[in-house]
Amino acid sequence: MTATNRIPLSELEQGIPFEQRHIGPDAEARAKMLAQVGYGSLDELTSAAVPDVIKNAEALDLPGARSEAEVLAELRSLADRNQVLDSMIGLGYYGTFTPPVILRNVMENPAWYTAYTPYQPEISQGRLEALLNFQTMVAELTGLPTSGASLLDEGTAAAEAMALSRRMGKVKDGVFVVDADALPQTIAVIRTRAEPTGVEIVVADLSEGIPAEVAERGVVGVLVQYPGASGAVRDIKPVIDQAHELGAVVTVAADLLALTLLTSPGELGADIAVGTTQRFGVPMGFGGPHAGYMAVREKFARSLPGRLVGVSVDADGNKAYRLALQTREQHIRREKATSNICTAQVLLAVMAGMYAVYHGPDGLKSIARRTHRYATLLAAGLTAGGVEVVHGAYFDTLTVRVPGKAEEFVAAAREGGVNIHLIDADHVSLACDETTTRQQLTAVWGAFGVEADVDALDAAVSDTLPADLLRTDEYLTHPVFHQYRSETSMLRYLRKLADRDYALDRGMIPLGSCTMKLNATTEMEPVTWPEFGQLHPFAPARQAQGYLTLIRELEERLAEVTGYDKVSLQPNAGSQGELAGLLAVRGYHRANGDEQRTVCLIPSSAHGTNAASAVMAGMKVVVVKTADDGEIDVEDLRAKIEKHRDELAVLMITYPSTHGVFEEHVADICASVHEAGGQVYVDGANLNALVGLAKPGHFGGDVSHLNLHKTFCIPHGGGGPGVGPVGVREHLAPYLPNHPLQPAAGPASGVGPISAAPWGSAGILPISWSYVRLMGGEGLKRATQVAVLSANYIAKRLEPHYPVLYTGPAGLVAHECIVDLRPISKATGVSVDDIAKRLIDYGFHAPTMSFPVAGTLMIEPTESEDLVEIDRFCDAMIAIRQEIEKVGSGEWAADDNPLRNAPHTATALGGDWEHGYSREEAVFPEGVDAADKYWPPVRRIDQAYGDRNLVCSCPPLDAYED
């Protein structure tokens, strides 16, 4: 018997390469697109688009691509090298049970994790409502009226509180006092952030109040930990009152679970509360991502850093949610911004908020009581066995004094399967949490040589929380925290909210500068494996060998991709990567004795975080003009280099430029800065146009941050998480971030921690590791080439209808293009907002609006969108251009047309129809299939109304009745 179509087994074993799953256009589609653009191959196209002076001389030196099954097996092998013991380390990171209905339907659901920041609120109502729940939860538990939509972690939130205190407080020249009983990583992050801006930090024992010698120096602000890192629960009202008498702003870093039982910071007099919501159902993940929080008194609301969800009304007067007070953000205020924070931790904030919805106030209080009860029993057993418990009042954490034997007891506990925290040679701390079991108590007692009986102690001992600090007010009274008790109702609530949103699981999100590409399921799957998800960030390094290997390999591969010598994965957002990179530059200059080098040159077209980060790094921003063709004005740059030659610290550029073109002079620009003694920061926001084609570290960059949530497939999560590693050349490596609790996280000479956890959002690093492993060097290069092809294809298709504003070599764009609506708006009155909202009726998320040029749309298709979807988008844009012509010709009235009234809801179709266009034209425009129609839940939202009438928590019931 003879085989007619013999295929070698080795070929059959390979299967379909993952690259073909990741890259949307297949060979036939690419040929069609290349013909439209006018090139014969991807290599020919990118050879014409990318300047010769920056091109890679050699292929990327990366391991070859592996199949999805092989990569999962490799990750399983790494996960198996992590040893997950029961954690009683505490220090801001706790075991928690993620309700399965939330795990499956939020954390693992692409409807939630592939959404973008809700800058188009009409199609983001689901996650905006979820964030309002989060804000309400935080505000009510902290007793302060206004909470933001999350910050990056507790350490960052505390540092932001320090900056807010300095900005808003009465005392302008003085010290910032930090409780000696604050979390050690929080103290370290505050120090890192304070030093460049000249704020002096004093760490003091506040148990007896602010020391007199500190008070007399002037106090800008005070941060108190409640309960303390040692576990101590004390009445902090006296120190709050004393601080206020000194004119200081008071921040309380508070544990939200403890606040279900303890008097709230607001009631005690605090101005600001900060912390983390990690223990509300979010896995530890070796340190992140987790949603930090900040809540403030009403007078600080308009200066709150980060994002803030508010309530407004739509065109029909119905309640609608949107991001409030966006004029605070660095996108607009640049070097005068309240913060450089460009993102939030939306996905994790949604999980934490839904944890409160799922459990309600009674359930949360029950979890807190159980946690405290375990701590009480643990203390009673240790005390009965002769072990000294330092504090008599505590919530979940005990500090015990064991002179000279601390290491011995920590090792014994580890042998018994439990990690506890070594404070010093004489002290150990132990923390209970939602997951603590009787077996853990027995194991810990055994480690200390104690025998005790849980049931006997439970019958004999009382709780230890001070009676005068017990909470008496009600919280979480809104119906949302009471009506979803069954899993059926919770499931349907989550589905209802998801249906109100538009995410990548519905269709293309063509946002320029944001790179909304495929987040493959294979890449996402390991994130929730317990070997990655349940590891404490301060667990002994020998228990995290799988993680540490993954981190080292990812750092090395990112260094190879970018041409840098060293990468730090600690920054947990692009903005934090910017700050880390600029602090490295600052550290380098200061080490060389060039402390006067503080000028940061930034093009006028740059992302707003660049300027805000520079100010935070203690630098003076000098703006460089942008030429008419969108490139840096080289003559202005040279003049400013010369003017500031002796003070020049760094030039920050984005490459390809923010205008979406490959600038031909980039190598010369870098050389000019270096000749003047400065460094070059290449913003990695647009790295998706370079991977495999060019390396910033080879064409002149000294430092870059990389957005893993853009180029390397970590999903945007509705506005976070993000990861912003920083890569540097060898001379800057000594000044990368480090961490006080993990020496392996950075150099001893580093600038201090940027994030609370040693490796930032380590829990999602398997995503980017997997992407690089699945694609290999050649696959990554082809992804870049197809991204460039897709952008140029869109530019060619739209050019007859909309002017393409900027092009580079050979008339080509990079990975994104900008279409200019200004002449169209001037001629017809149709605005960029009108077009963006009309795209919703066509079933699309709008491109980036009015950035970097007002009155334009910046479009980035990425490599993941197939030709059918790209053509559908182009067809919609062309159809909208024809609609604009009807407005311009007078066929449709300027104040009553489908664009001005977009988006159209299902409700809008009911009743009398008095518009000059039909219902069908409104909701089923050309190319929209009625069977697959996406219906926006609200009409166009009145942004100004929401800012004038600031409501940032769940409205009371009578508001809905109105």
Automatic annotation (TrEMBL):
Entry EC number(s): 1.4.4.2
Record field: catalytic activity: N(6)-[(R)-lipoyl]-L-lysyl-[glycine-cleavage complex H protein] + glycine + H(+) = N(6)-[(R)-S(8)-aminomethyldihydrolipoyl]-L-lysyl-[glycine-cleavage complex H protein] + CO2
List of residues that carry N6-(pyridoxal phosphate)lysine: 710
Keyword Coiled coil: yes
Enzyme class of the recorded protein, top EC level: oxidoreductase
Residues in Glycine cleavage system P-protein N-terminal domain copies: 20-447, 454-737
CDD domains in the record: GDC-P
GO BP, sorted A to Z: glycine decarboxylation via glycine cleavage system
Signal peptide: none
Record keywords: Coiled coil, Oxidoreductase, Pyridoxal phosphate
Coiled coil stretches, renumbered: 627-654
Annotated GO MF terms: glycine binding; glycine dehydrogenase (decarboxylating) activity; pyridoxal phosphate binding
Top-level taxon of origin: Bacteria
Subunit (UniProt): The glycine cleavage system is composed of four proteins: P, T, L and H.
Job description of the protein: The glycine cleavage system catalyzes the degradation of glycine. The P protein binds the alpha-amino group of glycine through its pyridoxal phosphate cofactor; CO(2) is released and the remaining methylamine moiety is then transferred to the lipoamide cofactor of the H protein.
Family, per entry: Belongs to the GcvP family.
Name of protein: Glycine dehydrogenase (decarboxylating)
Lineage: Bacteria, Bacillati, Actinomycetota, Actinomycetes, Kitasatosporales
Gene that encodes the chain: gcvP
